[in-house]
Design a protein that fits this description.
By secondary structure, the protein is mostly helical. It has 2 domains: 1-18 and 231-375, no CATH class; 35-210, no CATH class. The chain is built from 14 helices and 4 strands. The strands form 2 sheets. The chain has a two-stranded antiparallel ribbon with strand order 1-2. Helix 3 (54-70) crosses helix 6. It is globular and about 50 Å long. The chain binds beta-D-glucopyranose. Beta-D-glucopyranose binds at residues 26, 33, 37, 39-40, 160-162, 349.
């Protein structure tokens, strides 16, 4: 627990973690996280928008567009490879993380993740809906990413946790559906591209039928496990209302299997990364779902999520990726500590989702800076 102003600390951690290029470092002080992830960055940009920091968000969108344009030839080759029944090459597909100058990050852990580009399109759509404008350059990048996802979405890729590369993940499908929907609302060119329109419909059909008759969504088709990243289907992507029966069943499983006695949220039961701790960003997602569901007691549930997150901040107000208080696999922590030290802190994505939950609750999230255009 800390008595520092966590909103100010969060805004400052994010501000100082954004490089002049517009990229966000996942965590400036954690050796493995000195890169900019499309996934983390898109969620951070959306939180900044909610906190009134549209100008900083727009610089991230411009950075992603520059990465996409620099990768254009590889993206076209990836689309072609998949059309011909093959797999995209490592040097061709969009990577999940880049150095802040836009070069691909290290490839000693999985680099092919199809959720990040979808989350970026979704965040860009939110930016424009909130009054921002996307420059022709950014729009052209978004349209290229749309064609890329339209071709690649059925290809297995690692999930939001950079694991299980041989599966098509439900949470990834949801991100890509949210992204393509946002793009179709943004761009007449995308609407005219039959492949993009067809992919949007196909992903929707696949997502709704995912589970093979099961009542709840699972990590991937054929998996029995539930994963807390499935919360994003309702919040923030808003693909369904939290009361939708399959989402309600998924939420019930997440509450029963992944919420600790203290209220923090685990990723999935078999998680061993840092012993499978409780993640601040997932606890914020759960809080946002409660606010949107808005049943009696839900606001208090969301406020408890907020209080749990606040309690995990250090004396300086900095927030970690996860805490191991109720680790699922305490025996697995030692190996991670020996390799990399304690969990990443501060993690920009944790701070960002804290701000987003506050905004969802209608609590002050920061001063409006009024800047709204993307250049
Ligand atoms: C997480 C990813 C995240 C990355 C950077 C990984 O450990 O599993 O979701 O994008 O860290 O924060």
């Amino acid at each position: 627990m800390t008595d520092v102003d966590l909103v100010s600390v969060s805004l400052e951690v994010i501000r100082s973690g954004q490089t002049p290029s517009g990229a966000f470092l996942a965590s400036p002080s954690f050796s493995q996280y000195g890169y900019s992830w499309l996934r983390d960055g898109a969620f951070i940009a959306d939180s900044l928008l909610l906190a009134g920091k549209a100008e900083a968000a727009s610089r991230f969108h411009a950075w992603v567009a520059s990465v996409v344009h620099a990768s254009a030839a590889g993206i076209e080759r990836s689309i072609e490879a998949v059309r011909e029944g093959g797999r995209p090459g490592t040097m061709d597909y969009l990577h999940c993380r880049y150095t802040t100058d836009g070069s691909a990050g290290p490839d000693d852990w999985p680099t092919f993740q199809l959720d990040g580009p979808g989350i970026w399109l979704w965040a860009l759509g939110r930016h424009v809906t909130a009054g921002g404008t996307a420059s022709p350059d950014i729009l052209a990048a978004a349209e290229l990413v749309g064609r890329y996802l339209a071709a690649l979405w059925p290809v297995p890729s690692s999930d939001a946790w950079e694991e299980f590369p041989d599966e098509v993940h439900t949470s990834t499908l949801a991100a890509d559906l949210a992204g393509l929907r946002a793009l179709l609302a943004l761009s007449a060119t995308a609407r005219a591209e039959l492949a993009i329109v067809a992919a949007e419909a196909a992903i929707a059909a696949r997502l709704w039928s995912q589970g093979d008759g099961r009542t709840a969504w699972t990590k991937w088709t054929g998996s029995d496990a539930v994963d807390a990243s499935l919360l994003w289907i309702a919040a923030p992507y808003a693909l369904v209302d939290p009361g939708e029966p399959r989402f309600a069943a998924t939420l019930a499983r997440i509450e029963a299997e992944l919420v600790s006695v203290d209220g923090g949220v685990h990723r999935y039961r078999a998680d061993t990364f840092y012993g499978g701790g409780e993640w601040l960003l997932l606890t914020a997602s759960l809080g946002r779902v409660y606010v949107r569901r808005d049943r009696p007691g839900d606001r208090d549930r969301a406020l408890r999520c907020l209080a749990w997150i606040e309690a995990q901040a250090g004396p300086d107000g900095e927030m970690p990726e996860q805490v191991a208080t109720n680790a699922l696999r305490p025996d697995a922590i030692g190996a991670w500590l020996a390799s990399w030290g304690t969990s990443a802190r501060p993690l920009l994505w944790s701070h960002a989702t804290y701000l987003a939950l506050r905004a969802e609750l209608g609590l002050p999230a920061g001063e409006l800076d009024g800047a709204r255009s993307i250049s």
